[in-house]
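Slide 14.
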Amino acid sequence: MLKEREGISLTPDFLPLETLFEHQQVPLNRLLKGMVPEETLLAAIEELGIRLGNQDAFALHHHKGQLMLSVSQFVGVVDLPGVRLQILPKIHRSNGTSAAEREAKLSLLALMEYAYQLPLKPLGFTELLKDTSLDWFEVLSRIYATTLHYEYQQGSIRNYQSIEESTSHIKGKILLSESLKYPARRHQLTVQYELLSSDNLFNQTFRHVTHLLLGQCRTASTRQVLHELLDWMDADEVQAVPITLHQVQHLELSRLHDRFQMPWMLARLFLENQTLDLLSGDAKAFSFLFDMNRLFETFLTAFLTEHWTDICPEALQGTRVRAQGQEHRKHLAERAAIGAKGPYTQKIFALKPDVLFSTEKAVQLIMDLKYKPLSPRERKLGVQQADMYQMLAYAVRHGCPHILLMYPKNDSMDGDLRERFIIPTASKETTGDVSITVSSVDLSQYRSRRDTPRLIRELKDIFHFATHQGAP
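Slide 15: predicted structure.
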């Protein structure tokens, strides 16, 4: 028998599910279904953009006399008044809606597994993706609930906590100086002892996230598991306290508790990517969204770092992969300024290339990852002019003649895209002409680590092209 919990309904409202793919647009009246006032939905969409810090994430515009909603590169689940939107990445090859949904979910799960080091075990999770009634949030909630339920049943994360109290029973260590402060307590001593307890930050985080998910999860079997988890945590006297990502972002499990790695990583993802404190009970603008631009960058950087030995072309032998933040940051310009200690040179316009491939002496190649659609039939290939200026700035300041702009392959491309732009420069002694390679990479076929060899071959071809000195 499930018990009522504060802020959690035993019978949650099930909103109708509408599935979109990134960069798709839909008539607003298709979402309204005549059940929700238009101004209510518009206000919720505006609020969501504010919460995401990106007003263009969900854009409204008129097309052929209809008000349209366009989604961007944010994928996941959004609860709006009267409808739940599931937004999936456009990395699939199937034409049928059901097959496309399943392929998109498989690819998204595989990218997340690699990028966020999720230790997915063969527990039949891919079977969940065949059920189109389960949206992406429900799938991840099920994985979190079942893995945490299995591990917690074997025993919770427990550690020793130091307890200090006044008691008539001697246990642990007597704190003599503290005991003498209160001579009236003749029959009591102040003692200090170690208590093995489940009430720690790990379990408090699990409890907080479990409560959050229970407030939004719609699948009865998953809700049952989440309720059982909270019952067990009640029995273990785990405190219900609000937890923020900042508190646990760098908190790592010990080797003793490494079996909790999967639910722990998912718990942090839920904290990072949900935009509403669900304990408030306000579900109208709830969202659980990933920025595909960031996921694309994180995945490929991690993949290249791990497999660089197999991918590295001859021209880049001896180089190391240095992700953003691992290299001393350069600035585009300097200006003279006067401070408290007198004149000094102020560096301005910081440059942040995604990945540098460098030796101890020089940067040999700079790569920037752009999660944007390419247009192979256009003269500029769909590359934005501002991005080209940005790449030229990278090349000049790092003294690097080779730049690689990498984009995801999309369904408008018949084949792989490999093109080179040459920017002649007056300074032949430093950088020489700058070669900017624009390339697509196909992630639609990456469904698990079994697809690693295929992706290694593709990336090897891309880097060979980017560093080859032949004519474009």
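Speaker note: The CA atoms of residues 57 and 293 lie 12 Å apart.
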